[in-house]
Design a protein that fits this description.
2 helices; mainly alpha
Length: 26
Amino acid sequence: MRVLLVGSGGREHALAWAIARSPRCE
């Protein structure tokens, strides 16, 4: 997942990170 975040922009990174740490997505 880290690779995906690295290739994303600022908003995408923050959004993806928030979703990744969300309890819905284990």
